[in-house]
Design a protein that fits this description.
Structural class: alpha/beta
Strand content: 25-35%
Number of helices: 16
Number of strands: 30
Radius of gyration: 24 Å
Helix content: 10-25%
Distance between the termini: 64 Å
Number of domains: 3
Length: 573
């Protein structure tokens, strides 16, 4: 906030020295799409002017490119496995100064308490963390989770600072079919910002989705889908995450007319991916490399998101805007040399320069509550040999519904590693209800052992995949022992495990340590055969998400997402 506006205006006129001047920068002018050699005058945390200025203090840019702070338009911080302060430590040095996060991962475990934890943890960081409220907890009525959030639960949170609106509305059938609870959420406030999630939706159903007030979608996987959303008045959030990479498939929709309505998002990246590839800066780098004009790439990473979310003081280096920007040596690699947040130098040469808040709210621990699990829970009765099988699609979250002949022994479907067919099971882990389901999956590549995790979008039940039932059971028991996290087992022996004590989905460690641990887990999974096309941890996590077509598995059974119903594994039933 600019507290002394008269002084601020005098600084802009050059009548008083600015608190800080960035000398000799090549400043990006967002509305013109070009760069100009100039100083940046900063006062009271905001940009007073661009030109030639004097100040009380100076930082010499030495001709570096000054670019607005990048904004991640859609992320679930929990999915990085990092708590908010450690997430900030990882992304701020990469030029990200704001994120719009949907805390529905932790909300599915701990409800309002989980959302409050994230909000408190995100305070006083060198990163602006804005929230959209989880709209679908649980995501569908076809699964069980740790909490149910109604419109009455969510409505008071709309008055909280940094809450922008309603997060990705995944319950498309609820909108189209006029579900009363859905419409209570959609109409909580006038002009409520409602983010979208509608994979594959087209035609009049897409029109109806837009008519309900949805203003964005991050689930486009083809340029045709992106065009249809733009035609329906829906902004396109172009996702480049760890499990889903959609830029290459849809970037042809970007041009001078559409770029203002295209936003870069991660949704989501694991720590190793953040450290290796980067954050939003890596999407800008890839876009420029693929031929997108530099000015469009930068604006989609900053101004487009700011305008979409109504953040009127962000997204540009211009008078009255917050002094959130970074200095870059070139327009090829997009690796910041210095990052400024609220007019303060907060990161330099890849490292955070400021301290994190000392007070962190108590974490949500002891969240894994399983009923007794036995090998019988992994049995899949079939009447013949044909089964409905989840078919993986490389580099995508969507899956295929495959009806294929499977190996059968004593009336039970079994794993067939020669054909890359594995068992996948999900166990309700919040209330020890004993609900579970087991199905078959093809394409993952695991030849031996089992992998289990309490990171299972969105309900975060315990999910386990395996080539052997005994190993699957052992992996489940290891998850119980570490109170949530990820475990890999072979021949009854725990090869590696990674505790995630905060709600069973986040660590208390920093990005470097979590990255190392996660890389060790990935390496271990690769040795057991998991294919290079799939991130073993994140791909597994999305196999229980029943809002992305075509087949997914929840604790209630095999979900045909397009029909929005549970179907038997036995295709001949």
């Amino acid at each position: 906030m600019i507290k002394d506006l008269k002084r601020f205006v005098r600084v802009a006129q050059g009548l008083e020295p600015a608190e800080l001047v960035i000398k000799n920068a090549r400043v990006f002018r967002s509305l013109l799409g070009d760069f100009v050699d100039a100083d940046i005058a900063i006062d009271q945390g905001h940009i007073a002017g661009i030109g030639e200025y004097e100040g009380r203090d100076y930082v010499y840019a030495d001709g570096r490119y000054a670019i607005p702070g990048f904004i991640d338009g859609h992320v679930h911080i929990e999915s990085s496995m990092l708590c908010p302060p450690e997430f900030a430590r990882a992304v701020v040095p990469l030029g990200t100064t704001a994120v719009i996060t949907d805390p529905h991962e932790i909300a599915n475990v701990a409800g309002i308490e989980g959302i409050r934890y994230m909000m408190e943890s995100a305070k006083q960081l060198p990163l602006s963390v804005y929230f959209t409220l989880p709209s679908c907890v649980p995501a569908t009525p076809l699964e069980d989770n740790g909490a149910v959030l109604t419109a009455e639960d969510l409505e008071p949170l709309l008055d909280e600072p940094n809450v922008l609106g309603l997060a990705e509305f995944m319950n498309v059938p609820g909108i189209l079919n006029g579900d009363d609870e859905v419409y209570k959420k959609l109409t909580m406030r006038d002009n409520l910002l409602i983010e979208g999630h509608a994979p594959g939706l087209i035609g009049k159903e897409l029109m109806a989705y837009s008519a309900a007030g949805v203003v964005s979608d991050h689930e486009c996987v083809t340029s045709e889908e992106a065009e249809l959303r733009l035609a329906a008045g829906i902004d396109v959030e172009i996702r480049e995450g760890t499990a889903a990479t959609n830029f290459e498939a849809i970037h042809t929709v970007i041009n001078d007319r559409t770029a203002a309505h295209c936003i870069f998002v991660t949704d989501d990246r694991h720590p190793a991916d953040l450290l290796r590839r980067g954050h939003i800066n890596s999407i800008v780098r890839s876009a420029v490399k693929d031929g997108i004009p530099v000015h469009q790439a930068i604006n989609m990473a900053s101004l487009s998101a700011a305008r979409h979310f109504g953040l009127r003081d962000r997204g540009m280096i211009a008078p009255r805007y917050r002094a959130d920007f970074a200095l870059y040596d070139d327009l090829v690699n997009f690796v910041p040399a210095k990052v400024f947040y609220n007019g303060v130098l907060v990161a330099e040469e890849g490292k955070l320069r400021v301290s994190m808040p000392e007070k962190v709210p108590p974490a949500i621990l002891d969240s894994v509550h399983l009923a007794s699990v036995s090998k019988k829970d992994f049995e899949i009765p079939v009447s013949g040999t044909k089964a409905n099988v989840i078919g993986l699609v490389p580099h995508q979250l969507v899956t295929e519904k495959r009806v294929i002949d499977v190996a059968v022994k004593d009336g039970l479907a079994v794993q067939d590693t020669a054909r890359d067919i594995l068992k996948l099971a999900v166990f309700e882990r919040h209330h020890a209800s004993g609900k579970s389901a087991c199905a078959l999956l093809q394409g993952f590549g695991l030849m031996r052992g089992a992998i289990a995790s309490t990171v299972g979008h969105d309900s975060h039940n315990l999910i386990v995949i395996g080539a052997d039932d005994d190993d699957m059971l052992a992996a489940v028991h290891e998850i119980e022992r570490i109170h949530g996290g990820i475990a890999i087992v072979e021949k009854g022996k725990v090869l590696n495990s990674m505790p995630l004590p905060i709600a069973g989905i986040m660590s208390t460690g920093d990005a470097e340590n979590i990255s190392f641990d996660a890389e060790e887990m990935v390496s271990c999974a690769r040795k057991l055969g998991v294919r290079e096309e799939y991130d073993p941890l994140m791909t597994l996590a999305f196999m229980s998400l029943p809002v992305i077509p075509a087949l997914k598995l929840t604790d209630r059974g095999l979900v045909d997402v397009e029909r929005f119903e549970i179907i038997p594994v036995d295709a001949e039933a």
